[in-house]
């Protein structure tokens, strides 16, 4: 049950809304999204609580962005969630999965899939779904700026400036299900007793793990490996690759992990991944004996 004020976002976020127009017009990230030839005409999007007849309306243009409160039907698309979900989202440090709009939608979708007895109807993007996909980055950044307007910028962990890189890379050959024989790029660092294999997110590559792979404590505790899937990053497409075909499935991904572990000669490694790779980690856990994994660490994307 949400606090009374959250049944109307313009009321609950009044203090943040007052400074939102200035914030988005002075935000380098937001203005980089609008100062582009892709913005051929103004786009208005909204943020609304289920049951409310008012929404926060943002109109984005290459020249100036404006903020207003009004009827949601004035927006091309509107992000709609329950008051208690918005209340959780706008906390200084939201609990999982309320850190992002995508987490709220995932929770609603998952609840409907498994028949959870919680109210999730109405959590959706109302309006033009195509424009929502095209300009979702504007809505995402607006939500972040609204949260900053309530609580100030979220504090980030300070890290010492890196002056030396400890990662080395090389190519290996694996026989991957679906993709066939593939020349795969693998990076490694650390000399700790526990081997761990990092798996990248969809469309990415092993460089997203460079932070942890250069961490002093991690290098002492772990021997770390990260590889690019066939056809990703610095890995070559597999022998069976058909140009323009980017089909992936569980056997292909789990098989690539299994074959990489086999070629590297790893004994009882942990397999870690985020987002798409986090889901694959669940499959690896179920097939641990086949893969040769001692455990998995599935992470949210």
Structure characterization notes:
The structure is a single chain. The longest helix has 16 residues, at 136-151. The chain has helices spanning 9-12, 14-18, 20-25, 28-34, 83-89, 101-114, 129-134, 136-151, 210-213, 216-221, 250-264, 276-286, 288-291; strands at 43-49, 55-60, 66-70, 77-81, 124-127, 168-176, 180-189, 194-199, 222-227, 270-274, 295-299. With 301 residues, it is an alpha/beta fold. Helices cover 35% and strands 23% of the residues. Strand 2 and strand 3 (66-70) form a beta hairpin. The radius of gyration is 23 Å and the shape is elongated. The strands form two sheets. The chain has a six-stranded mixed sheet. Strands 3-2-1-4-5 form a five-stranded mixed sheet.
Q: Which features would summarize this protein structure in a list?
A:
single chain, 301 residues, alpha/beta, 5-stranded mixed beta sheet, elongated
In short:
The chain has 13 helices and 11 strands. It is α/β, with parallel strands linked by helices and 301 residues long.
Taken in chain order, the helices and strands follow as: HHHHEEEEHHEHHEEEHHEHEHHE
Helical segment tally? 13
Q: What is the general shape?
A: elongated
Average residue-wise pLDDT: 91
Number of separate strands: 11
- Reading side by side through the largest sheet, how are the strands ordered? 6-7-9-8-10-11
Spans of at least 5 consecutive residues with low confidence: 111-119
Terminal Cα separation, in Å?
A: 27 Å
**What is the share of helical residues?**
25-40%
Radius of gyration: 23 Å
| Secondary-structure content class | alpha/beta
Quick one: biggest sheet?
6 strands, mixed
What portion of the residues fall into strands of 2 or more residues? 15-25%
């Amino acid at each position: 049950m949400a606090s009374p004020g959250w049944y109307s976002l313009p009321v609950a976020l009044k203090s943040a809304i007052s400074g939102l127009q200035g914030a988005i017009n002075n935000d380098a990230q937001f203005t980089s999204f609008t100062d582009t030839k892709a913005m051929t005409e103004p786009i208005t999007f909204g943020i609304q609580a289920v049951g409310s007849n008012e929404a926060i309306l943002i109109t984005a243009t290459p020249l100036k962005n404006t903020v207003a409160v009004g009827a949601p039907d004035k927006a091309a698309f509107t992000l709609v969630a329950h008051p208690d979900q918005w209340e959780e989202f706008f906390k200084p440090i939201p609990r999982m999965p309320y850190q992002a709009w995508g987490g709220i939608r995932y929770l609603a979708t998952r609840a409907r899939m498994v028949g959870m007895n919680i109210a999730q109807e109405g959590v959706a993007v109302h309006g033009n779904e195509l424009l929502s996909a095209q300009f979702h980055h504007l809505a995402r950044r607006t939500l972040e700026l609204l949260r900053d307007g309530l609580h100030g910028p979220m504090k980030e962990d300070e890290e010492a400036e890196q002056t030396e890189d400890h990662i080395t890379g090389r190519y290996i050959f694996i026989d991957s299900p679906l993709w066939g024989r593939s020349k795969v790029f693998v990076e490694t660092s650390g000399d700790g007793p526990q081997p761990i294999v990092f798996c990248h997110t969809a469309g990415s590559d092993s460089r997203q793990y460079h932070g942890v792979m250069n961490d002093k404590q991690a290098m002492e505790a772990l021997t770390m490996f990260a590889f690019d899937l066939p056809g990703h990053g610095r890995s070559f497409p597999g022998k069976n690759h058909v140009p323009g075909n980017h089909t992936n499935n569980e056997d292909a991904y789990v098989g690539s992990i299994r074959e990489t572990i086999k070629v590297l000669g790893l004994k009882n490694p942990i397999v870690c991944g985020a987002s798409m790779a986090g889901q694959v980690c669940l499959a690896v856990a179920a097939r641990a004996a086949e893969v040769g994994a001692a455990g998995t660490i599935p992470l949210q994307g």
